[in-house]
């Protein structure tokens, strides 16, 4: 295809930013519509890309390449494979939903949408980049709009929004510091001076060929893991995440849980597993154990939370644990499940935050103890809550089930103990999700909430869109799984090769 | 026979005097003058090295001229600052000028 | 032609109600008449198709060994391929028939029972969704497909128990049902995963071949473990001890829901799962023993609790648990035929009992305590007659439906183990007693002057009538037609009646009736005396043996405790490390800034000393200040 579709996906939000910059601060509605339009274009193009991605052929498709920094071996190089194509689609869906979940923003509208679109563009760039330097650039860029969005438009509950924002930045930057060291170690070790390159494909080939000694790979991956796993909120590096969720405005929580954390998992997979496989294998048992801790520990904490955003925040830590475990299996089935769960959890958690955002915007509280019987006043939002909650506890018919089942199957073969403990998380998940649904939606009608409006036209967009993806892919998972598998299956020789590589403590 | 080391000794002595003045004088004007002494010691160094060791004697002299010009400018700015401080605070004592602390 | 079409289009059977659900929930939420008619039309078509499929099974010689299978790949990747499909064999055909029939009748009944309810359309939508899920479960070709629909029926059960979501009790009951079955799903999922890992397939047909071979080669130990894990799922779903606690509370849902989901269809899904995978269980005697004993214990335990309950639907709920115990026990002693037979007859008479109870509650404006009822035979003759039929059927009086199925179970149990047989007979005795107690207190005796009952309308009575007929003939006709020839596992089941067992069980049931009549026939005095005399035993039974309280205590203490501990660790251990690390950085900074005195001469002195130190260092490193003899 000659159309530079990935560039167009990437630049759609940026063009939106450019247009909004020219609009006056007072044209609030216009700004929202421009932002929405930009994301609709982005979504449309991403869907087109996803549909046109030929999974029978597989490999990297829609390649674009322009020279950028030839001396350093970096280029403006885009392309998607079976792993990043679904994630690019996810980015556009969550981004678009985020715009419509922000419809009630009335403070500094212009700045808000500029920053939000930049945030989305950053995520988009990281997913479509085929150049490691470009990837890192976008990866780092997202932190800045995140911080400002939390500190200016956030809300202060258990902790202040400034604290939450600062904690997020400190965590992510410290993580990135280690990660950059690891990545540059790889960059330097992979090629002698003068021939160095940031091309991901080349680096993957070199990394997999065994040129880099195991010892260096182990160090390099450990450094990368500190960065990527922090962003993926793996226990015990998750501490920034729930506060970040709780402090952030709705749409930022959606992007944070739905996209940013996936970026961490994507990094573990794309940069970690593919470029330093032996190092990855060495640390994999530890990641699996930590992932299992995330699942159980965060699920237990969810039981104690009465702020819904904290609950979903911890719940996303818990669900990210499944993804980390899936990646740590280094097994075709486990990886398939992990990528599928990145997509499924991204959609599901975005829907959850969107609905919580609606309740919070109208009722000005999101404390489970204060709310109750909201199904009387807002039946549509209640449906959204139900779908999100059911997806969260892995109900079949919704995509999350397929993803989780696949992860479990993959994990059982590799780490049976971890698998059993992680699966017990489904009981805990049901416990806290059902508690929240029951206490917020059901029960006697409370007259103090009678004035609350239900979802109105623009606010229905996130519900309809996200639910459609959850249910559609949930009923016909092969639409998604075929694409993902076309990215994972070619890794089989690599995965077989590293099966016997040394691991920490000899595996669990 | 006067050689390079004699020039360097004179220069070092001058530099030491300037340094001593810089560290001990309480008056801002005196401190500025001490700095001038140090700059001039450097000038002597440059000219001497240039005369005795360099193939092309002019390079060190050009540097010296540059330093003289810069020093003149610096004194102009420094004295102006000193004057401004004096007008604002009624003092040119350096131990009272500590607004940049913490 | 019709049978052939029905069989090859069996996927339509679940699809039609699913379509009804979609249409109602998107377009018909505010048009009750259309919504209910649409649901009934869809269900009726499914029923006709199910009949056709059953006819095809009979005429085309489809057996358990050679089922009709159609399937397509749901999703696949190297090492894991999951199908969705249709599997019709005599077992599935029986269930298809029962589920579509009862659903259809309940839908018709509900047009009367639910009339005027604000959630009328929602009700029909949910029931349609439930029917679709249940039928999808019945025709599942593999464990995962079954699990998918298994969870979906759980969802529908949750939604329908909590149908009156403004009631806190209904809300909590729904939550409890979901939670309890979730615990079972944990075991079931583990079992399924282990099967997938061991055999690389979840297909029932393939497993039926691979499992016996595996057992022959590797012994039964590991598979028995897997089978027991799988069995945890049915334990929760079919209300077996100790995961039965949700079923009595599930009666918070509307009565038609109790009849359909929590008596006739969904709760038997567990039994069906075991039956469907009987090829696995039948080669694992250890697992079968566990199932048999748990089944008989549940039958006894629930019957014991049912003896003293006062709410009409609660009695029926414990009765359901007890009867499910019978079905499990039948499977445990290896008689798939009798289990499926009892499943079918139980669906008829238990649905009838619930619909009858609904009719009573409807008439008495939700007065549920049977001790407040009495004498309803005069005001509600039709309901009384039909309930009476159902009571006779469940007690196993010949020639009613329950007699034949219960007899087969007892015969099968007697063949395998005498203690199980005796305990099952005791449970049957208690069944007769508490059902008679319910009937006597409700319909006989003196009318309670506070009640103003009236007979229910035709929409409610007609479905009950159909079920009443089936409760009479639903046992003898299949028995005569050779039910065991078709619905079986292994060799065809003998079709005779063991008169010793049959006679004994009939006598036992009649004894139960007599005892109930003796105690409750003449007012409440004897029963009150008995309550006092039996003391602790009565209290235990009335309080359901305190199982709920134990769970609550466990949940509060352990789960809640661990949760609070985790949160404490998060804030005070993990969090404290991080927060203190960065507070430490800040504190260090605020101390170090004191070095910046603002005294420029101090700065200059520091610069000088630093230069001197550097020069000395350089000298130390290079060995000498002087190089080559020159200064």
Question: Which characteristics define this entry?
Answer:
A: 508 residues, mainly alpha, C: 631 residues, 3% strand
The total of helices of chain A stands at 21
> How are the strands ordered across the major sheet of chain A?
1-2
Tell me the greatest interface. Answer: A-C, 56 and 50 residues
Kindly state the mean pLDDT of chain A as a whole number?
Answer: 88
Fraction in beta strands of chain B? under 5%
Question: How many beta-strand runs of chain B?
Answer: 0
Oligomer: heterotrimer
Helix percent of chain B reads over 70%
The pLDDT mean of chain B sits at 88
Which class of secondary structure composition applies to the elements of chain B? mainly alpha
Outline the low-pLDDT stretches of chain A. Answer: none
Low-pLDDT stretches of chain B: none
> Under the CATH scheme, which class of chain B?
Mainly Alpha
Ordered list of secondary-structure elements with their pairings:
The complex is a heterotrimer of chains A (508), B (102) and C (631).
Chain A: H1 5-22, H2 28-52, E1 61-69, E2 74-80, H3 84-101, H4 109-128, H5 132-141, H6 143-153, H7 161-190, H8 200-209, H9 214-231, H10 240-247, H11 250-275, H12 277-304, H13 308-328, H14 332-363, H15 374-377, H16 379-392, H17 399-414, H18 416-441, H19 457-475, H20 478-488, H21 492-498
Antiparallel strand pairs in A: 1-2
Helix pairs in contact in A: 1-2, 1-4, 2-3, 2-4, 3-4, 3-11, 3-14, 3-19, 4-5, 4-6, 4-11, 6-7, 7-9, 7-10, 9-11, 9-12, 10-11, 10-13, 11-12, 11-13, 11-14, 12-13, 12-18, 13-14, 13-17, 13-18, 14-16, 14-17, 14-19, 14-20, 16-18, 16-19, 17-18, 17-19
Chain B: H1 4-24, H2 28-52, H3 58-89
Chain C: H1 2-8, H2 12-27, H3 32-59, E1 68-77, E2 80-88, H4 90-113, H5 120-138, H6 143-161, H7 168-199, H8 204-218, H9 221-237, H10 246-249, H11 255-264, H12 269-276, H13 278-281, H14 285-306, H15 312-332, H16 336-364, H17 376-379, H18 381-395, H19 401-416, H20 418-443, H21 458-473, H22 476-481, H23 483-486, H24 499-520, H25 525-534, H26 536-542, H27 547-592, H28 600-622
Antiparallel strand pairs in C: 1-2
